[in-house]
Fold:
Amino acid sequence: MNEEDNWLHGEQVECPACHQLLYRVAHAPFYDEHFLYCERCPIHVEVSYYDSVYKQLYKQVRQEHALSQTGGVKALMRTIEEHLKPCSCGGSFRHDAPRRCFTCHTAVVVDDASDVDLWRWSAAFLADDSKVADDVLEDEERWHSQFIAGEDKWK
Ligand SMILES: [Zn+2]
Ligand SMILES: [Zn+2]
Structure:
């Protein structure tokens, strides 16, 4: 993999506790969703930019902050966090919660976790796009979807 192909800074990491292989990657800019992660388990919630509640919160925060500034983005994230229901495990969703191992729930990405996503490692991530069979990627996504919170996310 050369630097150019690796523009999301994908990196194989190993869980320090159970040695499960994981894939750490920058949150893809082409997603039109924010991911917020549970502070206690590997589940995350996905908030679409087109979600009506999100749009409302965005408008509300924009009246007080310039969202191009770091402080504004933080304020937006805090506002989203306050409006989300807790995770099924009882934890709260935070944009900067540690990213956790899917197997043993150990915190793997702790510092600067915002804008980082964690996947289970798959050889598919190393392959050239054109060579990855769709069913392999679909399998990965189906497996991963068990760690996405349900649709009914707002308080
Ligand atoms: Zn682990
Ligand atoms: Zn949880």
